[in-house]
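Example record used in the benchmark description.
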Amino acid sequence: MENPFRVGLKHVLHVEPCVVVIFGVTGDLAHRKLIPALYNLSVDALLPAHFSLIGFARREFSNETFRTGIHDSVSKFSRRRPLNDSVWNEFSSRSFYVQGAFDDPAAYLNLKKLLDDIDAQSGVLCNRVFYFATAPEYFATIATQLDKAGLLAPRSEKARSRVIIEKPFGNDLPSARALNAELSEVLEEDQIYRIDHYLGKETVQNLLVFRFANGIFEPIWNHKYISHVEISVCESIGVENRAGYFDKAGILRDIVQNHVFQLLSLVALEPPVAFEADAVRDEKVKVLRSVRRFQKGEVGKKVIRGRYQSGTVAGKEVAGYLAENGVDPESTTDTYVALELAIDNWRWAGVPFYLRAGKRLPKRVTDISIFFRNVPYRLFQEEDVSRVVPNVLSFQIQPDEGIALKISAKPPGPQVQVQPVNMNFSYGSSFGIEPPEAYERLLLDCMRGDATLFTRSDEIEQAWDVLAPVIEAWSDRSARALPVFGYDAGTWGPQASEELLVSGTGSGWRRL
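Model output (structure tokens):
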């Protein structure tokens, strides 16, 4: 029987012959996410008939050693268990390895020869996707070496070669502009796929479908009916083994500039003229351009910076941030941030957007909550006012993807009472299938040449521009510097963050 979820999608999901080259293939990202995602696409028969994988890294591996290593990665991290032997054997036989340093021209000539051999054996010219799963300082180097080796294709064939770049894309506005300029010397903008894995999550994509495919919600998606919006990206873990990177970046650069702003853009954008890459991304850029920039003196009032101290998370005692291995004891790095933003356009005039992200919070959860305005007149005057609550529409991005709508209802019984209840939609229970991993969707889209869920250069720069006043204010280490509020690990952040919402909405953050 034909799968009803596949009906009508055959043409849309057509993928031309393709080779994926992963630079930094021995790293954690490739090991945990990229290779398992490609295997899962193979299980779903979504990879093209002529598909190959090439790993590129400095370690001296043979093809067989590489295949053994990626078998371990797939066995441990793929959502498909146990492995399908026939799928794996086919996938493995088309996996190859090139050893070399990222700045070694000879290694790129070896890569070119292997790619040419694959084309010759396939009998077709395969598209090429180069995934930069490396530290950011290598992005420009790899792109330059690919160009010198003739691997980015002549201008007439640029669409054949695509480059996927991981975050962080710069660490402030000047560095992001500089990186964009370096890449533009050897790549066209439509060859660059700046990836944010949050955009591959089903619920994030469903934001657009929910808004623009349901006639009952889009008419009320504005300042007349919505009082405020809360976006939370909460983690229970600390810095783990990323202290070297995180202590230089902080949660503002690591999470807010990319993940949180992507969610903000999708909640607030205007209807695009089509569900196409540039049409959607044009509207996202308009949102970020409309975000009111912080004026001098506003950062301390609208932005809360926090740092976790020792405490208890999930019943386990954990150390404070300054006691973590690899963290500078004098560090002022943020492990928590809360912001109040305003969007200056007709749709969102007067609607505050509250964003927060943090580590060592009580649990891992990413949530978007839309708070609707209260009813204009309380008909049930004798009811406890605390039980007559605003309607809240929430999108849970992780760990369990779903949508919930809080409404008021009367419980059974002779007495008229008002009680809040939730109407829940869960991907797992509603569709009866496990949603694909975010990287599966994004890798497939890049192979298809669909950049809708990837970030454009002007979007990156607008996001950094919004945060430029915050970064500047926080760089001040004098006696006038803005405070870093402490919070116990296992709590929901500093009290100042709760007060930020109370002052604007009359209540604190929604309990997640």
